[in-house]
Amino acid sequence: MQRRDxxxxxxxxVVGLAGAAPVGAAGTSRFPLxxxxxxEPGVPFALDYAPHFGMFRNAAGTDLLDxxxxxxxxxxxxxxxxGMRGRDVATQEQIAREMARLGMRMGVFVL
Length: 111
Description:
Helices cover 40% and strands 4% of the residues.
């Protein structure tokens, strides 16, 4: 393959992907979170993905427990919290109680 042909094909691929934007006409994602058939929110993912606090603050707000509930609603069943060590004991206990209530597990955290 000639370099010119390769560059032309790569450019056409990028242009083609630009038309596959994940936002539909109604402004909602065509690729919702969730691991069920069709990606329905609330259906657990087939794999044990573990997001961390802050990933969904634009959708769920800054409250950690609200973010945790949002993660669960989207199909996540584990949490990764690299900031756990820096949180006060009362906050750690609140997170643990809410995770237990939701049936979620703690994934990786850094000591």
